[in-house]
Model the fold of this input.
Amino acid sequence: MRLRPFDVSTEQGRSDERYRLALWSVVANLLSKCITMLVMVFSVSWTLPYLGAERFGVWMTIASFVGMLVFLDLGTGNALTNQVAKAATQEKRLDVTNAISGGLGLLFLLGILAGSLLAVVIATLPWASIIKVRNPAIGDEIQLSLFLFAFLFGINLFSTGVHRVFAGLQRSFEAHVATALGSVVSLAALWWAARNEAGIPALVLATLGCQSISGFLLLILLKSRGLFRLHGIHAAVRTERNSLLRVGGLFFVLQIGTMVGWGADSLIIASTLGAAQVAIYSVTQRLFQFVVQPLSMVNAPLWSAYADAHARGDKEFIFKTLKRSLILTASLTALGGGILFALSPQLIEWWTKGTISVPLLFVLTYFVWIFCETLGNALAMMMNGCGIVREQVFTVLMLTILALPIKLISLNYFGIVGMLASYIVLYCAVVLPLYGFYFRNSLIRRIGKNERNL
Done:
């Protein structure tokens, strides 16, 4: 945790420096996530009483589109993290600058394309059938909110890419400080909107719009350090494009599978049971974010640490860190999730001011699910950092093929509890045999190889 860097001329020094940067990232992420969690808490308690369950469910459905549509960057955001990390190990400033400038230039173009494409799709789809509401007067509000979302999503695609650059540089702590500042602005905007009982479009702007600010603050920081330049950016995009799209293509498939697997739950529920049921799902999901988000803070910085270790062939660091990460993740999930489950009736009653009632069985089912989510995330950080994506793609494709029909059938017959329970069973039946047995030897061999030999 010291401020002064370790001597990176030795293997032990490089290992210590990775942990130092990761720990500082955790501290900064803690600050950022505390403010983000405040936004999440008040987004429920300030707005649910005046919006009502149905309009709140509509807002949560639109908000869930951010996670669903992240694949529209074609996987280049994740590929950029590894590209920057790899360039940084060569210690050639020009290579790092070109990787950053080219990657961000490509993401800017993709952001424009994604925003325009979403606007066209929004204008043509029958949203009254997709997001079912009892009050038809909400229709115009939904349409306006969706168009605003399309515009902000294009901006957010680029803004998120800037954060991915700092992850690759192992300076995520700076990105988290910027995120904290954006969340403060978002919290203030959310308070103003709730005080004036603003509609869904204003709430979308207060959250997604304000949170995009952090990426542009970080862009200014990159520019001041000479790591991003507009001059010659066209050439940098052409140079980096093929590599980013090639590696990003695997992440792209992975993101689509993730979206279908569990990112589209709110939309599936809204189109099948109605927007009011999304409110129950979203409140429970946000409750357990108090466990998922802190563990994400611990594991996310390890992506770049794994990438650096893999590029240098430090196999021992990777295995030792992965073991520690999995043990810590499982222990904290059990502890934190168990406390939240035990207190959930009182917490939800206080949080929502009695506006909605969440079945205890659904809370228990979601508690079980977060074990799958947090442990899967911890393992994914290692595989992403080591460039092990094909195995993830195969696994997610298996889940994707089976998940959608199983979820739809179980949702119609058993409601949201059955939908989530059936997916947990499917997830364990697919992931555990594949990673535990089928891919096990392959993963061990590939971790020990250098990226250039893959």
Observations:
- The radius of gyration is 22 Å.
- Residues 11-453 form one domain.
